[in-house]
Amino acid sequence: LGARARGRLRVLPVALAQPETPGHLDVRNAAYVLETLARASDACRAGHYAALVTGPVHKGIINDAGIPFTGHTEFFAARAAADVLMLLAGPHLRIALATTHLPLAAVPAAITPERLRRVLGVLWRGLQRDFGMPAPRIAVLGLNPHAGENGHLGREEIDIIIPTLDALRGAGMHLLGPLPADTAFAPAARAHYDAVLAMYHDQALPVLKAEAFDTGVNITLGLPYVRTSVDHGTALDIAGHNRAEVNSLLSAARMALQLSARRAQAA
User: Which spans of this chain does the record mark as coiled coil (predicted)?
Assistant: First the structure.
């Protein structure tokens, strides 16, 4: 990470319930995973640390242990009682998610004026605070193909998204859209925005991962501390084989250093 980032490394042990075997999951260790997240989050909220960097976590095994869990983002949000937003950032692209880990069939009902106002507010403030953008430009994607095609391919844009964006523009936000997702990421379009708000998980992550799989970073905006993470999953099939790439983790650590330094400078 560079000479300026080098220093002492403190290791805080959290005991496993069962010995680990690389590449194999054990429901008896699910509570251990959540304990590490809880202790790290609480220490950051108490001001002991400026940032939290996480690796991937297997959501399924935690739920198999009988513990409802949809992801880091939601866990940290509940722990801090904060309105948060998932932002995926690569060297040349930032994409936030209006909804995160929902079945696709549940997404349309989740796109409400209240949700859009909330997530756009978190994104607007996060870009200002953590990325130093006084007046960020945000492109908002439509939910339906071709952003609804004037209602012929769905009415969510007409009934929900457009009126909400118009109201927020009136409050001073610089918002573009709703834009068709299939053209919003074209090189010519990117010059007109600083970040994108996508309506659902797979509208955003394939684009970011195709462009910056090894360097993409997952950032949780809205927390009282900086939190970053890798943009990939657990890859159990290569665990213990010395084949894992570390670039995304290094990118997450570098981003945490940058964002926490900016917050400290602004304090």
Answer: none
